[in-house]
Amino acid sequence: MAELTDEDLVAGIARGDRGAGREFFLRHRAGAFRIAWRLVGNEADAMDVVEDSFVKLLGAAGKFRGEARARTWFYRIVTNTALDLRRRRGRYVSMEAAHEDEAGIKDLLPSREEEPPEAALRDETRGRIEAAVGALSEKHRAVFLLTVVEGLSYNETAEVLDISPGTVMSRLFYARKYLQQSLGDYLGAGNE
Questions:
Q1: Angle between helices 18-40 and 70-89 (to 10 degrees)
Q2: How far apart are CA 11 and CA 17, in angstroms?
């Protein structure tokens, strides 16, 4: 199956080939999870989004026309499913808050004093970046995550979000500008 393209796998899925479905899922589950997690803000919801998205892919594989790459098409399903979940719930939960909620008791986690300084700094930096990305508007966050984090091209991001490549570039510009302003003092940028 490794020699098959994603498009071949989707065609196999449409024919009912379970092996093709398994291979497509294995290839794209990590990317789908990263997109979902960053859009919904917690692991449990992200796992639900990936599962729901894959079920949607299985049901819609016969409708895939090949006008976009199969990965792009699947990421569009994941993105729309994640955004729909967020709209239904009406909130974004930061990764850190989600972990605290899931653990239930923050006291059981190691304190900052118990961590090596590098780990504490890394965790603090990650938390600030996640908070800044989480503060972006939904449309700017989606463009930033797909383009910068997942490495999709402007055209692929445009296909996933059903917007023009020019709109992708504009939203990415404003997302980066906001993140630079939000994180500039913390990361030392702009202080010179």
A1: 40
A2: 9
What's the predicted TM-score (pTM) here?
Answer: 0.67
User: Considering the domain boundaries, does residue 22 fall inside one?
Assistant: yes
Tokens of 62: 């016969």
Question: What's the chain's length in residues?
Answer: 192
- Give 12-52 pLDDT, tens digit per residue: 999 999 999 999 999 999 999 999 988 888 889 999 999 99
Of 11, 4, 1, 9, whose CA–CA distance to 65 is shortest? 11
Which runs of consecutive H residues, i.e. helices, occur in 15-161?
A: 18-40, 43-60, 70-89, 95-103, 117-135, 138-144, 154-161
Hey, how many other C-beta atoms are within 10 angstroms of the C-beta on 53? 24
Q: Indicate if 122 and 72 belong to the same structural domain.
A: no
Same domain, 121 and 102: no
